[in-house]
Design goal:
The protein has 105 residues and is an all-alpha fold. It has four helices and no strands.
């Protein structure tokens, strides 16, 4: 894999994971702060919407697994090679960290 493809994959997978954590976890935080506006149904809608948008916009370019467990099992099933697995795995860790950090702010 070339450097430009690897960096594009890293950035996109980080962003997809970031938006999942930011939107999904942010909806949980918002429902705790304003329970009259957000309920359990809206939390599910926000999580579903973030997964839908991630797959719709970035699924062709990145894997849009959004979770290290999904990436790990794709590697075990030989759907992705080790190099791609490592790029995606560390991108997801970075995206999850940044998403959680921005929600905490």
């Amino acid at each position: 894999m070339s450097i430009s493809k690897a960096s594009k994959l890293f950035i996109l997978e980080s962003f997809v994971t970031f938006q999942l954590l930011f939107i999904g976890t942010g909806s949980i935080v918002a429902s705790e702060m304003h329970p009259e506006l957000f309920g359990d149904f809206s939390i599910g809608i926000y999580f579903g919407l973030s997964i839908f948008l991630g797959i719709l916009f970035f699924g062709r370019i990145s894997t849009a697994h959004m979770k290290p467990a999904a990436t790990f099992f794709a590697f075990l099933n030989k759907e992705i090679n080790f190099e791609r697995f490592m790029i995606i795995f560390f991108a997801q860790l970075l995206g999850a960290f940044l998403g959680s950090y921005f929600v905490s702010l």
